[in-house]
Protein: rRNA methyltransferase
Organism: Kiloniella litopenaei
Amino acid sequence: MRGFFGMGVEGGSKPMNLGNLLRSAHSFGASFFFTVAPHYDAKQVKQSDTSDAAKTLPLYNFDNVEEMVLPKGVQLVGVELTDESIELPSFRHPMQAAYVLGPEKGSLSPEMQERCDFIVKIPMKFCVNVGVAGAIVLYDRLISMGRFPGRPVNSRAAAVPLPKHVQGGQIIRTKKD
């Protein structure tokens, strides 16, 4: 899969959920993880991050939204349940993205929502915890951007195989006057 992504949380306060989100981000291949104005005990986060992501995944902690620095070209995608949000199944994930979720007992701040290039929502009746929401978003990124065989048209049919990759010829680009 081309591109890269990071995962983060604003104002996270439940260390077990934060550890779960960190482990999921690591498992799905995140390039980095970040927190903005967090309120948690790092020792407790390690209890649910059984992958020990902090040893192999860059972690960034920002005191507020204004201090948050993302890699050049990255589009920020907020995950928030609002009427205006794009439903996740209809969303085209950016090649270079950073996903940010809000705290368990609240929403993304107005400052964070203003900073987002997109705001998506998981079409559910009510919110789930931040770890579960993050895993759903990353799974959606994986299945929508990855190269997988097509799903069968019914439960008894075989999966539609991927066509064999064909390497094209050399493309020479010349400067036009």
DSSP finds four helices and seven strands in the chain. The two ends are 35 Å apart (CA to CA). The beta strands are 4-10, 32-36, 59-62, 75-79, 86-87, 96-101, 118-121. The first strand starts at residue 4 and ends at 10.
